[in-house]
Design a protein that fits this description.
about 130 residues; alpha+beta; five-stranded mixed beta sheet; globular; disordered C terminus; Ribosomal silencing factor RsfS; NT_sf; repressor
């Protein structure tokens, strides 16, 4: 079963909030067929710890306005890889160095990409996913 409309909507809201803070390589993956715990992984990058924290705050605020509350957050104090679990979606905000090293997109490459609005950043390696 594919991610539901609510999960897709929250992913777009979170992606837009991240983009407003200059997040890069924004990608949403439909993991609903592989995981029972969540529908969508949203993965975004920040160039430094300060930017990662700003992205985390913006995403949290935007999703709170949509009625979504984080079940848990991990990595906030280090601001290298912050995992934000909202139940329907999990947001990964990674420092660009950690993003390259852990390569979540390659790990989940068999999951479909969730379409995000055209005005959001396109992942640099989107051609690698084809």
């Amino acid at each position: 079963m594919a991610a539901d409309d609510r999960s897709r909507h929250l992913a777009v809201v979170a992606a837009r909030a991240a983009a407003d803070k200059k997040a890069e390589e924004i990608i949403a993956l439909d993991v609903s067929e592989r995981l029972v715990l969540t529908d969508v992984f949203l993965v975004v990058s920040g160039s430094n710890e300060r930017q990662v924290k700003a992205i985390v705050d913006a995403v949290d605020e935007a999703l709170h306005k949509e009625g979504a509350k984080a079940v848990r957050k991990e990595g906030v104090s280090e601001a290298r890889w912050v995992l934000m679990d909202y139940g329907d979606i999990v947001v990964h905000v990674q420092h660009e160095e950690d993003r390259e090293y852990y390569a979540l997109e390659r790990l989940w490459k068999d999951c479909p990409v969730v379409d995000l609005p055209a005005d959001l950043h396109v992942p640099a390696d989107s051609e690698d996913r084809a």
